[in-house]
Structure formats: structure tokens, C-alpha cells
């Protein structure tokens, strides 16, 4: 349907929304997959709108102006402020145009409104006003901080809601308060400290008249505290300070108190400390209930005192969490601890009994190492293995899995513990524990003695040996031990008798490299091993992949020359 108009008109495009709502308080941009909120730092924002020609395109550029207008029903005291560009124009042969204008942040909190319209007044205007319903672009502008839905659940740490307080929180943290934020919701105690520090720093940086009038409570209380009151009791700042002192003195490095099973252990430690030191007004409740982890099949009958004994002594050895693997060692370890306690406190013995689970399935793997089975010996073995500076869950497995190599390295510790046990239990000594280490091979090393064992370990250390008692390397070391006794006695002043067995120690591929080291002798082989162990990291039995033959011969020749210059007499060999 045709209609007439004196000149072309321009209007806001009817195909797009002509109302824009914007709250400066919650404005954000996406940075690295998260929303970055500007808070009060955002003072203006650019906006765009689409204009549509009502008429015909022309080959000429046609300028126009925009202006601010009040919209119908608007509060004239709540007018948003808009700043327009100095020049707008519709490009030649175009039907639409995108306009940019800047909305300024209101000078006060609240809701503001303004309309943006085409300025069609004046004879020099190229366009008249278009369709009435498309003539105004409405802006609903706010600067309003509403109370977050979950604020009331953290009011103990945040204090009473105040829009200015929340504005400060958003501005300095660039986040809205939300339970989805771990630090805000799950560690509100730390978030509280962040806010108090930020407020203190801000007020110190501005004149008094610009300082914030609100405050945040001093509340370091863990958000889970009330759910764990059976261990912690009622919160107080003094009690919190005491807890931090205890964790610093007795906790793990950089440990924090957490709502986990370790609280049961901490509760006992807190009460023990308070029994020894006066801290007026600080108390912790005693839990009188049987813990859910208690197993009568391992721990026997339950009593409260017995449970506390178990917590204090077993929890540190089980990562403060009783699991299924704990029962593999719980009873032996507790019996050993109880035995030592009663020896040290004969006037105050504890009469707890723990179930004897009998001979374990793994004992058969280690009969040659441990000798005949006995309950006391089993308990000593278990505790000694667990105390080898390894995670307990792993170290108990070397028994269960029959790892003879790993366990054999612990035999000296076991022997030492048995010696301690025998000294404290006259008349009940363990006399059937083998004294020699598992690696002692009588077919290569002869009869065992502690002096010979000490000598072997000394030599191994001098040779910087690594995996030294496996495969063909055993034969190498048998030769070394036989050849170094005189050198050892001279160096240490000992008088060890050389009764090591004579074995065929010739390297199985010596002849293959005879051009490197020449004719074989046990002494020469010992010197070769001494040099190679010290110069090839991780050396076990092979060397030729590490250096050429010429390099090996030069290494050996130089080492022999240096040794002979420092020692008398010279070694009775040379290298080709």
C-alpha cells in the first residue's frame, strides 16, 4: 500500500528489541572462561542500536542527530545520562545504520531511565521521524547491588548485608558472591580474612572522608565447625588461636584443620595439651560414643579408654583414616606400642587386649629370613617393616606379596628391634632369629660374622655400588671382598681374617675386551670394578655402551697411575 511523505524518515529497526536493561553493578566480561565483574570501577559503557530507513536509498551520505528524551511515565528525577557521538550519518545506498552511544554510570544507586530518539527538528534535518512505535530506544539503567540469595547463610562471616559493602566486595574481587565459588562458600573463613585485609588497605590509602563506614566481622571460624561440634565444641577466637598453635607445633607441614577423620585424633591431642597447660575458657568435649570404624575381630572388646588409645597410636600410622588395609597391621602394631608403654610405666600399666590373628599367610615366604614363627616375632617384624619410611599401605604389601628382596633390606632393623626386645624382656628372649642378612651367600662369602658383614658394607660404600647382589654381579663382589681385606685392615686398623672363599671370579666376557685390560687377575678385576663403579652412574655389569674401548683403557690407565702415586706398594699389574 502506497503512502506519501515529504521526505525520508529514519527509525529504530522494528526487527530488533528497542528496550535495553543494564545494571552497572553486575556488568562483566568473559576472561579465560570466567566472568570478570567490574563492580564500581566501570564508569561508562558503550551501547549500539540499529536504525532503519523509511524511504529510498540515495547515492549521497545523509547526516542525522540523536537526542535524549523522557519516556512515557518516567520519574523525571531518575534520568539516565547518555553521551552521543558528534556525527552520525547514513551511508550512500544503505537502508540501515548501526549507531554507537555511551551510557554514563548514574551518580547514585537506584534505577534510571532515558529514551534515545532521532532529532528531526530543524529545516536542515535530512530525515523526519519514522513510525511512532519505533521512534524511541528505551534504556533502563541501574546501579543496584541486591542481596545475594545465599548471603544469610554466611552472615556470620560477612556481617549484615549492606549494598555498599557488597559493592566493595564485587569491586575488589571481581566476582559476585556465590556458593559456586569455593573460597567464598567452602572457605568463607579465608574469604573473610581477604575482605578484612582489603578493607584495611583501602581505608589506609584514602582520606578519612573517603573511607568506608562498613566493616566485616573478625570470624576465622571454619564453615563446617558447627557440624563437627562433637569434636570441637563451641567456637571462640581464643579456641581457634589454640588450635592454630597446636597444628603449627604438631601437625604436618602447612597442614590445615579439615572436617575429616583426623578430627577424632586432634580432639584427643587438644585435650591432652589442655590437661598439661592452663588455658582458661578453652575446653573440648569428650566423645563417649563407639566409633563406627571399631572392629572387635581385631581390636577386641570396646571401652572408651581403649578406643582413645587406638586413636592416638594407630591413626598417625594409617594416614588418620582407618581403612581395610589398616587391619593388616593394626593388632601387631598396637601390641608393640602397648608393650613399650607398660615397660616404661610399670606403675600405671594398661590392660588392653587385642585379638591375636595367628600366623599370617605371608610368613612362609620369609621362613629363611625370620626363622620359626612366634606371635611376638611376627609383631616385631610387622612394625619394623612399617617403620621403613614408606607409606604404610605399601610397606605392608611387601610382606603380603612375598617381596623377599625388599624385606631382606629391612632385616637389620628387625634384628635391632629383637635385640631391644630381648633386653627389656629377660627370660622371654627371642633366640631363634637368624643373625645373618638375607643376601649372605655362604657358598660365595663363607661363614657369616658381624665383622665380615660390616666389612662388606664398608667395601660396597667405597665402591659406590648400587644393585650389588643380583645375578652375575654376586660373583664380582665375592672376588672384591676376598681381594680387599688387606687394604681394609690397613685403612681402618681392623684385623679382619680373610676367610672368604676362593671362587672363579673371572669376568665372563673378560677375554672379549682383553685389548682393554690385558691378562686377567682377581686383583686387576677388583681395581677395574672400583674404577667403573665410580665413573659410570648406575653401573652394574656392562660398560661398553657408555664409552669406547680407548676411553675405557685411558680411564683405567690414568686411575692406576694416580692410585700408585698415592699408595705403597704399587698394584702388581698394568693395562696394555
Keyword list:
single chain, 576 residues, alpha+beta, five-stranded mixed sheet, four-stranded mixed sheet, 38% helix, 12% strand
How would you describe this protein?
This protein has 576 residues and is α+β, with helices and mostly antiparallel strands. It is built from 22 helices and 13 strands. It has a five-stranded mixed beta sheet, with no helix packed on it. Strands 2-13-11-7 form a four-stranded mixed beta sheet, with no helix packed on it. Helix 10 crosses helix 12 (375-386), helix 12 crosses helix 15 and helix 18 crosses helix 21 (522-535). The radius of gyration is 42 Å and the shape is elongated.
Shape: elongated
N-to-C span: 115 Å
Overall SS class? alpha+beta
How many DSSP H or I helices? Answer: 22
Strand order of the largest sheet: 8-10-5-1-12
Uncertain stretches: none
Q: How confident overall, as mean pLDDT?
A: 90
The biggest beta sheet is recorded as:
5 strands, mixed
**What is the radius of gyration computed over CA atoms, rounded to a whole number of angstroms?**
42 Å
- Beta-sheet strand percentage? 5-15%
Secondary-structure topology with pairs:
Elements: E1 9-12, E2 19-23, E3 28-31, E4 34-37, E5 44-54, E6 62-64, E7 66-69, E8 82-84, E9 88-90, E10 96-104, E11 110-118, E12 128-129, E13 136-143, H1 155-158, H2 163-173, H3 182-185, H4 188-205, H5 229-232, H6 237-250, H7 262-276, H8 296-299, H9 304-314, H10 330-344, H11 367-370, H12 375-386, H13 392-400, H14 404-408, H15 411-424, H16 442-445, H17 450-463, H18 473-483, H19 485-492, H20 514-517, H21 522-535, H22 549-566
Parallel strand pairs: 1-12, 2-13
Antiparallel strand pairs: 1-5, 3-4, 5-10, 6-9, 7-11, 8-10, 11-13
Amino acid at each position: 500500500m502506497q503512502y506519501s511523505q515529504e521526505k525520508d524518515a529514519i527509525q529504530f529497526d522494528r526487527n530488533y528489541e528497542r528496550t535495553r536493561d543494564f545494571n552497572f553493578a553486575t556488568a562483566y566480561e568473559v576472561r579465560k572462561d570466567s566472568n570478570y565483574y567490574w563492580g564500581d570501577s566501570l564508569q561508562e559503557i558503550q551501547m549500539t542500536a540499529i536504525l532503519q530507513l523509511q524511504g529510498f536509498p540515495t547515492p549521497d551520505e545523509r547526516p542525522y542527530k540523536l537526542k535524549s528524551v523522557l519516556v512515557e511515565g518516567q520519574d523525571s528525577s531518575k534520568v539516565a545520562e547518555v553521551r552521543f557521538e558528534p556525527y552520525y550519518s547514513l551511508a550512500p545506498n544503505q537502508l540501515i545504520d548501526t549507531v554507537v552511544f555511551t551510557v554514563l554510570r548514574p551518580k547514585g544507586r537506584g534505577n534510571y531511565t532515558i529514551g534515545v530518539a532521532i532529532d528531526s527538528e530543524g529545516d536542515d534535518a535530512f530525515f523526519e521521524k519514522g513510525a511512532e512505535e519505533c521512534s524511541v530506544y528505551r534504556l533502563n539503567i541501574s546501579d543496584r547491588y541486591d542481596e545475594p540469595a545465599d548471603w544469610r547463610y554466611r552472615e556470620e562471616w560477612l556481617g549484615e548485608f549492606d549494598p555498599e559493602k557488597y559493592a566493595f566486595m564485587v569491586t575488589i574481587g571481581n566476582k559476585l558472591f556465590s556458593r559456586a565459588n569455593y573460597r567464598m562458600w567452602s572457605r568463607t573463613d579465608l574469604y573473610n580474612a581477604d575482605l578484612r585485609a582489603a578493607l584495611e588497605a583501602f581505608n589506609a590509602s584514602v582520606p578519612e572522608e573517603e573511607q568506608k563506614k562498613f566493616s566485616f566481622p573478625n570470624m576465622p571460624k571454619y564453615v563446617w565447625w558447627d557440624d563437627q561440634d562433637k569434636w570441637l565444641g563451641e567456637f571462640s577466637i581464643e579456641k581457634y588461636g589454640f588450635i592454630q598453635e597446636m597444628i603449627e607445633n604438631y601437625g604436618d607441614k602447612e597442614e590445615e584443620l579439615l572436617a575429616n577423620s583426623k578430627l577424632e585424633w586432634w580432639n584427643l591431642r587438644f585435650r591432652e595439651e589442655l590437661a598439661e597447660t592452663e588455658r582458661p575458657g578453652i575446653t573440648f568435649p569428650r566423645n563417649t560414643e563407639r566409633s563406627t570404624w571399631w572392629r572387635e575381630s581385631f581390636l577386641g572388646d570396646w571401652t572408651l579408654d581403649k578406643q582413645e588409645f587406638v586413636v592416638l597410636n594407630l591413626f598417625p600410622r594409617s594416614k588418620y583414616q582407618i581403612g581395610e588395609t589398616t587391619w593388616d597391621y593394626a593388632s601387631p602394631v598396637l601390641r608393640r606400642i602397648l608393650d613399650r608403654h607398660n615397660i616404661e610405666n610399670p606403675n600405671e600399666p594398661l590392660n588392653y587386649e587385642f585379638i591375636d590373628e595367628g600366623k599370617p599367610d605371608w610368613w612362609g615366604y620369609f621362613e629363611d629370613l625370620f626363622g620359626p614363627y612366634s606371635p611376638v616375632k611376627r609383631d616385631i617384624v610387622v612394625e619394623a617393616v612399617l617403620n621403613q619410611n614408606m607409606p604404610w599401605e605399601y610397606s605392608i604389601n611387601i610382606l603380603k606379596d612375598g617381596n623377599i628382596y625388599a624385606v631382606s633390606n629391612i632385616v637389620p632393623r628387625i634384628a635391632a628391634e629383637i635385640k631391644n626386645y630381648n633386653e627389656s624382656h629377660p627370660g622371654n628372649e627371642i633366640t631363634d632369629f637368624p643373625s645373618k642378612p638375607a643376601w649372605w651367600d655362604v657358598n660365595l662369602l663363607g661363614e657369616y660374622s658381624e665383622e665380615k658383614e660390616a666389612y662388606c658394607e664398608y667395601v660396597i660404600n667405597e665402591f659406590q655400588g648400587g644393585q650389588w647382589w643380583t645375578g652375575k654381579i654376586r660373583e664380582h663382589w665375592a672376588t672384591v671382598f676376598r681381594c680387599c681385606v688387606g687394604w681394609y685392615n690397613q685403612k681402618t686398623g681392623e684385623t679382619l681374617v680373610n676367610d672368604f672363599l676362593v671362587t672363579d671370579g673371572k669376568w665372563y666376557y673378560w677375554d672379549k675386551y682383553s685389548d682393554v685390560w690385558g691378562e686377567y687377575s682377581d686383583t686387576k678385576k677388583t681395581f677395574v670394578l672400583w674404577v667403573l663403579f665410580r665413573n659410570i652412574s648406575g653401573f652394574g655389569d656392562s660398560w661398553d655402551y657408555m664409552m669406547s674401548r680407548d676411553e675405557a683403557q685411558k680411564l683405567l690407565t690414568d686411575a692406576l697411575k694416580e692410585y700408585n702415586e698415592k699408595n705403597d706398594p704399587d698394584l702388581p699389574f698394568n693395562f696394555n
